[in-house]
Design a protein that fits this description.
about 140 residues; alpha+beta; two-stranded antiparallel sheet; about 20% strand
Length: about 140
């Protein structure tokens, strides 16, 4: 027979195995993929693909400098080599290369997005060729 203290503890903290007494597990989402389902669950109020990415995977939009940051003195005039530059992230919408990332992504309505995939620099270069130092964002729409 259970003692009164044990019964009170079980009532206060929930019966073992009872849903109320268990922790809820947070749903995990892929790092390099945003699906229509996730947009509906986690960002239903955003207007376009750019806002979706900003809210759910801001690392897709980070551009890092490429090239030499400090170069040795070269040539007879002792000028430094060109400093590091930022190569923009390339955007492809339904397989077609789009213009400037921020502008192109703002033109895609969030409700039209089926999924958004981020390819890192090496995967983007293998798939599309050179000029993808900061990777690529692939947007597939249902329209």
């Amino acid at each position: 027979m259970l003692k009164t203290g044990t019964v009170l503890a079980l009532l206060a903290f929930g019966w073992p195995g009872d849903a109320a007494g268990q922790e809820t597990v947070a749903k995990k989402y892929p790092r390099d993929l945003i699906t229509r389902e996730e947009i509906r669950e986690r960002a239903p109020d955003v207007q376009n693909a750019y806002e979706v990415i900003q809210r759910l995977r801001p690392h897709f939009l980070r551009e890092k400098a490429t090239g030499a940051i400090t170069a040795p003195l070269t040539g007879p005039d002792n000028k430094r080599n060109q400093a590091a530059t930022k190569t923009p992230i390339q955007v492809y919408i339904n397989g077609a290369k789009a213009g400037i990332a921020a502008v192109s992504l703002r033109e895609v309505l969030s409700e039209a997005v089926v999924d958004i995939v981020y390819l890192n620099a090496s995967d983007a270069t293998i798939r599309f060729g050179t000029g993808h130092d900061n990777g690529a964002i692939l947007v597939v729409t249902g329209r």
